[in-house]
Fold:
Amino acid sequence: MSWLVAAPVVLPLLTAALLFVLQSRSEVQRVLSTTSTAVLVTLSVILLYRVSEGGILVAQFGEWRAPFGISFVADHLSAIMVVVTGVMAVATAVYALRDIDGTREELGYHPLFHVLLAGINGAFLTGDLFNLYVWFEVLLISSFVLLTLGNRREQLEGGIKYVAVNLVSSMIFLGAIGLVYGLTGTLNFADLAVRLPEAPGGLVTVIAMLFLVAFGVKAALFPLFFWLPASYHTPPLAIAALFAGMLTKVGVYALIRVFTLLFVHDVAYTHTILLWISGFTMLIGVLGAAAQSDVRKLLSFHIISQIGYMIMGLALYTPLALLGSIFYIVHNIVAKANLFLIAGIGRRLTGSFDLARMGGLYRGAPFLSVLFLISAFSLAGFPPLSGFWAKLVVVLAGARVEAWPIVAVALLVGLLTLYSMTKVWQAAFWTPLPAGERMQERPSALLYAPAVGLALLTLAMGLWSGPFLALTEAAANELMDPSIYVRAVLGEAAAAAMRGDTP
Amino acid sequence: METPLAVLVGVLFASGLYLVMQRNLLRFVFGLLLLSASVNLLIFTAGRVTRGTAPIIPEGLPTPPGDVANALPQALVLTAIVIGFGLIVFAIVLVLRTHERLGTIDTAEMAERLEAPRPVATDLEDEVPA
Structure:
């Protein structure tokens, strides 16, 4: 069964290799690229089904048993994230058929897109800290190129900030890995979960903080988020949507992984810091958004704000809170990426991303308005859309442990998000186009199709939230009991020893 | 042996950090190089600096005999060097391209030049240099 665990990484890598060979034939590239993402999402769903039926799946490469070889581990969280990656891959690949111009295709858009997917899935599936670093770099370097592809001046200026901050955070990440290795002599997640409790707690906390900084930059946490709004508005929307949906969430995933499996020796200290950070991230993000007039920048600030909710779930560190956090991630990826895609269509219709120059979309494109309403109000947490359940669970989890200040912040930020979305609605949809501007012709159905699909998914997650919540609940329960993970990777003996050490 | 290496790691990291905080992007790249080198050295040192033979297992034995060198940190550092090399090459090309397009490698000036009006009007057209 181990091929299935590696498939979500191997398939995009193979596709990328083929696409590099077919560089000069863009028609073939388009067909191959789209087909491959369809296969990817199918394989991912099979993987998630297998994990939900039979528990954690582990692959040991080259038959080197953990902790000596590199393990790939698909638990519920990893499998869910891989499925979401697959869905986003299909949506953005179809959107890109009309959104990415010939020049960018010649410069290698298609193969890079698949290398990025391989990097994202690799980061989700790996069970080894150093391997996680490698996949992070794979996704970073392809995202660097995708971000600056086309060499427009804004892209280069934004790209420099993105590259600079992310490279420094990679160095901190690598340094932290070196320290972990020096302390424990292992880098396998499961093995670390067994050994870290025996290490001196103070040192472990220091290392945990290094990881917090490294992943905090990738996840765009307060106060490390400045690179995001400086760069995410520069590439074409097909690329920006994938970035907005997936890249920060890889950072969030890594934070959840290390702060549930590895660094749980002093939850009162580390997770309190996380809680403070989550509050500030929510608040600063939404306030930043209020000041923006470019739709893409406004949405970029909302990414940051929403990351706060996910970290809040992690920081509260109860099964319910983690459930909320994971559900929030899935909901947010779908809704947020869709808003970027919709903004792209709106741009084609009105000729601008500037709220002051957009307008008349409600009259001119009623269907697009419906799509926007679903995603935007889901983001703001309107019942019965997916965002409502996500926010409800996180807030409920906060109320259960009586963390009232963070609950208050979460509710306030929800209100401000609604204000922000209403602002976009009014400026871009309700008010008529400025005098002298004309509505452009109707954009291709290939741009609408992914937006419709993602909007339906948002609706489905809201109206039939039962199965989605059940899956995330299974993921949260696994995270709260690291010995399940350890048993799957290292066997029963190690898990029993671990349970004995940490009651 | 670990102590002087640890001090060296610290000095290299501090110098690197100083350089990455400069506005001049070329200095930033040099800072990155120093950071990368210091982190590689950190991993190497974290694996403990010992004398030993190559960790090759003779036929018929389950483990290598006697003291062997720890091969894992070397493998890690080798991987990190290759990745670091790729990233830094990309960073250098990015700085070069930025200099071509914006005419400066000072980050503060970059923002100014970006805001200045430019001859090509719309943001629809992608200006890709030939």
Residues 120-130 of chain B have pLDDT under 50 and may be disordered.
